[in-house]
Amino acid sequence: MKILVCISKTPDTTAKIAFTDNNTKYDANGVQWIINPYDEWYALVRAIELKEADASHAIHLISVGNADAEPILRKALALGGDEAIRVNIDSDDAYVIATQIATVVKDGGYDLILTGKETIDHNGSSLGGMVAEMLDLPYISLATKLEMDGSVAKATREIDGGQELDEVATPVVISAQKGMAEARIPNMRGIMAARTKPLKVVEPAACEALTATVSFEMPPAKAGVKLVAPDQVEELVRLLREEAKIV
């Protein structure tokens, strides 16, 4: 089975948030870039676990971005990917990114396409569905468990009031969230091996972005905490109604 794991470059969760160009671009100066945690901890690690259970599986990685995405692809290779593909275009538009991934999948003969449920910077949660639609493939979103029975994928999803078990024949696109796997750290052997694993750069397919960033803005500063004595119930009710707007 050929598995393709979608890898996105995101700022470290402790990175300072600032904007440039009249608040239309994220200020990347001094930012430490990491693999999007949902892609790494859940989608990639689950793919590695599947390969550990069946060594005939192959794990390919794909990232859409400039050359500065290559270090995170190397880390993903160190964790257990077999080879990587970087599509040479920098875009924040989900449609453009999905188009590039779908184009690679069409020529790659992949059985299972895994992606994290969303990226921690944009929180769009739309990529997996777009890729599946473009390829006319079934899509299972927000999976917390994934097992393979030959060419059948069995995925568990959380739903209101319980869980849902879906079974679908491959090829299929699945987005992963917490519960799918446990985070891993690359070992020295994996790090050394990653240096020589294939990392292919391909030029992007023609595609026009459907969205553009108008501006970013920071959320309003949080107000200070007001402490109310236990015996001042009326004052607490007033604050909840007039300031917290709870009626």
Major beta sheet summary: 9 strands, mixed
Number of strands: 13
Mean pLDDT: 93
Q: Would you identify the regions where 5 or more consecutive residues have pLDDT less than 50?
A: none
CATH architecture call: 3-Layer(aba) Sandwich
Detailed description of the structure:
- By secondary structure, this protein is an alpha/beta fold.
- The protein has one domain: Rossmann fold (3-Layer(aba) Sandwich).
- It has helices at 37-53, 70-79, 94-108, 127-135, 188-194, 233-242, and strands spanning 2-6, 9-11, 19-20, 25-26, 33-35, 58-64, 83-87, 112-116, 139-149, 152-159, 162-169, 172-176, 199-202.
- Helix 3 (94-108) packs across helix 4.
- The chain is globular and about 70 Å long.
- 32% of the residues are buried.
- The mean pLDDT is 93.
